[in-house]
Give the backbone structure.
Amino acid sequence: MVQKPPTILTENEPLRKAPIVSIGIIDWLRKNLFSTWYNTIFTILGIYILYLAIPPFFQWAILDAVWSGEDRTVCEWYDENKVKYRAGACWLLIKVYFNFFTYGFYPDELQWRVNLSFIILAVATALMFIPNIKKKHYIGMFLFLIYPFIAFFLLSGNDTLGLDHVSTHKWGGLFLTFLLGSIGIVFALPLGIILALGRRSKLPVVRILSVIFIEFWRGIPLITVLFFAAVMFPLFVPQGVEIDNLLRCIVGLTVFGGAYMAEVVRGGLQALPKGQYESAQAVGLGYWRMMGLVIMPQALRIVIPGIVNTFIGLFKDTTLVFIISLMDLLLTIFTSNTNPDWMGFPFEGYIFAASVYFIICFSLSRYSLRVENKLMVSKQH
């Protein structure tokens, strides 16, 4: 049988248009805000609410605000008929109390020690984030093994080093809030990893103890934990032994955050396929090497959003320490509002506190998203 020669196309197929990868502002508005009649109603209602809220707030917070002066008379005054007039936001309050909001009752002449401790921390942390810097493990060892002692001696003082002692009762403000949040975050993660591994252990005693610990601390509110740490905890130590109130608070925050972190890490461990465990065992890795080199890095990468969410929640929960008389940022603002010379300006201080918490928490969220995207890209390659 003679085969027919292949058919040769003499005409090219018509070219297809490239897919649209971007749309104009009009099309974006029509697609996202006015796609249906009810979306249109909600969009118009939202615009109307913003119109009612934003211009008055902008007028109060920016245009009519008082930024400088000597005392409250520049923010409000009385005419000859004793009618009170008030300008916009009195940001002069933040300027007057900024040192108190930052350091609490920490002595003014010793505040350089707080600044120095945070400068050392900022420099070491910045070096950790530089991509191409070598021997980062030495920086990490410094942060976790050496820096805590340096910060402790700088903040509390030491007679041998010639540093005057400063009681923790004088620590306060944003400095104390950041200290509590940082220490709670640093210790909650390793505690959560240990508890998560214990809850998945094949040893019944370890598993039961881990479950009891996690469920107990997750089943009570943080305010109860702080009360227990401040009031009940001293009853369980030998008579004559006194434990600093700040240390008790740190322990309470750590165990509370660690219990929640354990469930986040356990979710990452359960999300890994069984083949990862079997592959690690097939190459002869023991339990701890398997967890440290194969399982845990993958599990933590999966639950980065949950870890950061727990970090943010723990940092914001530090505001509850005012219950046990620790002068955090929120309590310094509340204290300033009780000063007769500045009573009547409560919103400025709380807006300042909200802005500080938002900046810190938003920065944590953005950085975690960057790390997550970077790890996912490296995983694809």
The first strand starts at residue 76 and ends at 78. The mean pLDDT is 84. Residues 92-106+166-380 form a domain with the MetI-like fold fold (CATH 1.10.3720.10). The chain has 14 helices and three strands.
